[in-house]
Amino acid sequence: MELTSDNKLKNIIVVGDRVLIKPVKETGKTATGIYLPPGVHEKEKVQSGYIVKTGPGYAIPHSVEEENWKPEEEKIKYIPLQAKEGDLAIFLQKGAFEVQYNGQKYFIVPQTSILMLEREEDLFG
Fold first, then answer.
1. pTM, whole model, 2 decimals?
2. Alpha helix positions (H), 1-125
3. 78: closest CA among 51, 114, 97, 54?
């Protein structure tokens, strides 16, 4: 999946440790050649899809004594997520929330529900 300025969903802001995932379309056919009805793959416990947007990460609370002279917006710090835009994510369906945006199906998934990431290093190079 190649990310371009057209498909980055500019109006969407993902919050905190969550990621927005576009699910991979399943063929509906098993490895042995049996055709399955629509929706069977969607009920599985583990799903896969490409990460379209990520949140800023886990917010780190700051202490009151820490650099009071800085403006308030500069005090917020985050631990970044491992997940990056363009990664293929294998995630638990149980922790995901399904949403529809512009007629497309997406999942909002917390990073803790992601089991594995596959990253193509030359995707952004």
1. 0.71
2. 72-75
3. 54
